[in-house]
Amino acid sequence: MLCLGLSGGLDKVYENRFQVPNTFMHDGAAVLVRDGQVIAAVEEERLNRIKHSNKLPISSVQYCLSAAGVQLSEIDHVAFYATEAYCNAMLENMLASQPDASIPLDAKLLVQKLLAQEFGSELDASRISFVSHHQAHAVSAFAMSGFEQSLIFAIDGSGDFLSGLVAVGSGTGIAQLATFPENNSLGQFYLETIRYLGYGLFDEYKVMGLAPYGDPVPYRELFEQFYELSANGEYRVHLDRIGPTLLRSIQVRQKGMPFTQQHKDVSASLQEALERIVFHILRHHREATGMTRLCLAGGVAHNCSMNGKLLYSGLFEDIFVQPASHDAGCALGAALIVSEELGRPAPRARLQEVYWGPDLASDHAVEEELTAWAGHLEFERTEEVADRAAEWMAGGAVIGWVQGRSEFGPRALGNRSILADPRPATNKDRINAMVKKREGYRPFAPSVLEEDAREFFDLPGSACEFPFMNFVVRVRDSKRGLLGAITHVDGTARLQTVSRKASPAYWDVINAFKQRTGIPILLNTSFNNNAEPIVDSVADSIATFLTTELDGLVVGPFLVKKRAATLEDWTALAVSLPPYVSLHKVRAYTALDRQETVCEIRTDHSSRDGVRISHDLFDLLTRIEGEAVLADLLDTITLDQAQREALTGELRRLWEQRRVRMHPPHAARVQQT
């Protein structure tokens, strides 16, 4: 029995027809389960290279079908991650302002039509279902927890006109206890506040990392005006009070401005308020139900600091957090819901790993791809890849590490990671500057051999398995000075324990590092720059390696270094435009306060996202049909050597921002970055 779960939007990658609220139709994904067991899952952003993709997960579905060796017509059931009534309401709202006769006002017919257009076969409408958004969150956690019984808390920004639920799971069933309306959304509570700290949607985790630098006391009473706690675990948030109050009380931070202590204190107060509300809800339901275990899902469940506080509180004997708690995880929940309805529930076993995405190609294919970049890369194959990689890192190198199938969810868990020595505090600043181009305060996570975790981290009770970076835990006092690159300012770390059984290749490289240094830990962060999702393919990995200052790259059994590429090497590459990019000429004010025609390249057809480019580069890019070798493009206009170098440099900067693609001509891929 094959069941396919979907999350995300309805547009093709180059379209913007379906305009919906930002809190819905993002984080697209597809998950395929056979008889209740996951066989393939991937987020669309990994394949179409659009962060938090709000597009129809076409490439994700294609991958899932390919992994199973089936056609869409062979899928027994497809499930979408919201109720049919909610989707129909969204369609009516969208089409009220922009009527389109080609779009049916029926969500099921629309999904049926879109899938038929992409895959050439039409599923019978009886094989398409819509499931409750928060029920999908809840099932995605409980079914993967291994618990026979537990309390379930699914909480996020919004979906199906709600923002969360509390339920009890027992066997394969879930009994709902309470729901929370959109106007009581804890996700919106957090988001509404961080707007005044210069952040927006999808930046919530950044503020969580900033909070330990602040003191919640100065703004505690102010934040208490934003929410009320009442009997029976009930609460109310006053979203309408946040903006006016903060505008009167703090200096609003604009994006890019430095953080003041005031901003740090507000972050701390916000985090404290969230934790206080969550504890209030859970204490009541823990006492009312007698449940000693807890499952968490929904976007708010990615608040690892909150999860850590719950862990240390002793309120529950065991806590399971769905590793893809955001909306991509609803694709998993949707697939499991319909699989259970068809008599194939998920087996009651604790989730150990989420390496469900595309695998690396064969060693021969990887070697061919690396060879195509001969002017830019040098590489060697080795049977001692873990030992050699550990040697690099022990010598101070920061490397990209790509092995096996990619991870499902927002965390790099050792198959698509950037790795480094966790000891030098300078590594944190170095990686932030040379790869991530992100705020210097943000911490990096440690990956530790599961059997050595308690020596370095103060873990509560008998807990020793933390495979998904879902909890912030305490670094032992005696180890904080040693682990300078992964210990946050408050003495904590977002921990991943690594099992030899679940992740043998990753275990091997950490163990090899331990043999050289005595430290069974590596700094682990996602393999991407600040402009892109986590890499998935070999091509993605090469692009990110060449557009950052990483010291080395390990792909399968290959050790890769950079060459000093010449201008001829760069102009020998092909250039293409991603399908989500568009070119524009607009009238705008220049630095001299004169209105002139300027050229822009945009990634979402929005002027807010435009990056200005030179008229020469604009002219060059408009000449591309599909793809074109850069040298051939440059030869179409009269340029001296300095101008060729300048245009090539400008193009390379756009490549770093993922607004153009550069690749060897014969190695071009639909999904290549």
Concise structural overview:
Belongs to the NodU/CmcH family. This protein is an alpha+beta fold and 673 residues long.
| Estimated helix fraction | 25-40%
Radius of gyration: 25 Å
Low-confidence stretches: 667-673
Alpha-beta classification: alpha+beta
Shape: globular
How much is the average pLDDT?
A: 94
Going across the major beta sheet, what is the strand order? Answer: 13-22-21-14-15-20-16-19-18-17
What fold name goes in the CATH topology slot of the largest domain?
DHBP synthase
CATH architecture assignment name of the largest domain: Alpha-Beta Complex
CATH superfamily of the largest domain: Carbamoyltransferase, C-terminal domain
Number of domains: 4
Give the biggest sheet: 10 strands, mixed
Q: What top-tier CATH class of the largest domain fits best?
A: Alpha Beta
Percentage of β-strand residues? 15-25%
The total count of strands amounts to: 28
Number of helices: 23
How many angstroms separate the termini?
35 Å
Structural overview:
With 673 residues, the protein is an alpha+beta fold. The chain folds into 4 domains: 127 residues, 2-Layer Sandwich (Nucleotidyltransferase, domain 5); 195 residues, 2-Layer Sandwich (Nucleotidyltransferase, domain 5), CATH 3.30.420.40; 205 residues, Carbamoyltransferase, C-terminal domain (DHBP synthase); 105 residues, Outer Surface Protein A, domain 3 (Alpha-Beta Complex), CATH 3.90.930. Helix content is 35%, strand content 22%. It contains 23 helices and 28 strands. A 10-stranded mixed sheet has the order 13-22-21-14-15-20-16-19-18-17, sandwiched between helices. It has a 5-stranded mixed sheet with strand order 3-2-1-4-5. The longest helix is centred in the middle third of the chain and has 29 residues. 48% of the residues are buried. It comes from Mesorhizobium erdmanii. This is Nodulation protein.
